[in-house]
Amino acid sequence: MAAAVGPWDLGVIGAYFALVLAVGLWSLRRGSRSSISGFFLAGQRMGWGSVGASLFASNIGSGHFVGLAGTGAATGLAVAAFEWHAMFVLLLLGWVFAPIYLRAGAPTLPRFLALRFGARRLRPLLALLSLLLYGAGRVSVDMFSGAIFIREALGWELYTSVGALLVATGLYTATALSAVGGLPSLWQRFPLALPPNASGPCPSPRALALRLLRPPGTDLPWPGLLLGLGVTAGWYWCTDQVIVQRCLAGRSLLHVRAGCVLCGYLKVLPVFLMVLPGMAARLLFPDVVGCTDPEECQRACGSPVGCSNVAYPRLVLTLLPPGLRGLMLAAVLAALMSSLASIFASASAIFSLDVYQRLRPRASQRHLLVAGRLWMVVLVALSLAWLPVVEVAQGGRLFDYIQAVGSFLSPPVAAVFFLAIFVPRVNEPGAFWGLVLGLVLGLVRMVPEFVLGTGTCEAPGRCPAFICGLHYLHFAIVLFLATCAIVIAVSLCYPPIPRRHLHRLVFSLRHSQEPRDDLDKEPPLDGDVQLQNVEVEPSGQGAEPSGQGAEPSGQGAEPGGQGAEPGGAGGVAKYVAPPPEDPVWGRVVNVNALIMTAVAVFLWGYFA
């Protein structure tokens, strides 16, 4: 049984939250939260360190703490691919997608599609789909994983985030690995870890548990990890509002790229801080983490479908001494707050600007801010109603559920954005019907799987094999290609969009200097900061504090000043030449991007 939380632990937790509250109040006094740009985009003044840390913190929520360790305990090392794949996709975000989003001047991604297609139908559809993904795949996952951790630790509910994660988790990782005899002992003993009196078809870890790439027909087949994961990772890192909003808040394109590289380096860590300790938990607690009998699992952790999700909290509460246990709890109890805050900010931005403003075009800024904040409450309520599905889906493996939801709903969005940027011939009817029909195909797979269940290795689900038999990562590949085919086929049946509407909205015209006649002529809100053609470098006065180390700097002005010009009369967005970026810092960022790519290739090759 895990150790109880003592006074020292509660004291550390209380001190941590007091510090977080003080920093939050200081930030509120220091920054503007009363405008759309201030509330949703941090005034567009985030430096490279803040962008990179924000990208990482928005990604690492309680679902990673519980889900990565749990899936590592259940299936082994292959889940590391989900983390290391992002190192490549982050380069696409910084060097391909983010520059176009910034030059387009769109505060949200549905707004970008409105500029690209004149999408009066497409913009609200994408907004509603994004809100559905946040509710089913993000907020509910964070709340569920946080509840698991707190149920193990305290017996009452709180939320999570990733503030002091690296130091505290480093201590916990070293303790967990030393408890099983070190990394060589983990590689040797993990395939043999069995619960007492184990029997049945699935008592032991899979024979391929220590391999990153596994054959087709296994739990995480290599075609799905390389191609299907590329689709879902491309959606998540390059077309999801939660992530892209961190880049839109950057003070310049150079800062955004440097932040993407920093986040890529940080993505090396979760495997060693979460996956490997989760595998160690199976050796230390085989009767709980490795249980397969539904009755035993119900007694051990309260879930009949499996207990692998308790691997991380069980390690922390059992191995760490008082004080350090509280520090680790504080790290986890403060990191869901970071993840949830990012999701809530992005969801409220989409709801306010892409849904509510379409219904109430004359709404003031204050009205939009209130609507966005009220939507956060509604989103929490909907996510709470979805929690029972999260608990039993994908055999009780939380991280598999996260990826499955993304594989069912995100490929149509990824396909529409990919074609919108790289294929100028694609038009609004093609994008709209591709997104609609792709979403229908995804729901045809998702609804039966969650209603009938995929089951476990001992009790297969009732979903027919012709619907649920294809692995969810392989289904993502099929759905992406099907959506692309629909978008292109329908687009060819309608006239192309004239070139004058596409300047700085597609990859081939990303450096165009001609004025753009916006298809979606939306007037700017009074007092709001426009993002048109933002590609500027920070001035000397806007440099980051020295505490963040050397800072990419250029010769230009801050965004929102000389670096962007709002659309003129008739919705014409004029080109404004950006100030030249500092070539030295540009080369530093590019070299670090190459080094990060080499690190990613080495990790894939070594563990494959």
What does this entry look like structurally?
With 608 residues, the protein is an all-alpha fold. It has one domain (39-499): Sodium/glucose cotransporter (Up-down Bundle), CATH 1.20.1730.10. The protein has helices at 7-30, 36-41, 48-59, 62-75, 80-84, 86-104, 109-117, 122-153, 165-179, 183-189, 222-238, 241-248, 253-266, 269-284, 286-289, 294-301, 311-319, 324-359, 365-392, 398-409, 411-422, 428-452, 465-468, 472-491, 583-607, and strands spanning 516-517, 572-573. A two-stranded antiparallel ribbon has the order 1-2. The radius of gyration is 24 Å and the shape is globular. The two termini are 36 Å apart. Residues 32-43, 155-172 and 524-570 have low confidence and may be disordered.
Characteristics of this structure?
608 residues, mainly alpha, Sodium/glucose cotransporter, 25 helices, 2 strands, 1% strand
Short summary:
The protein is an all-alpha fold and 608 residues long. It contains 25 helices and two strands. Strands 1-2 form a two-stranded antiparallel sheet.
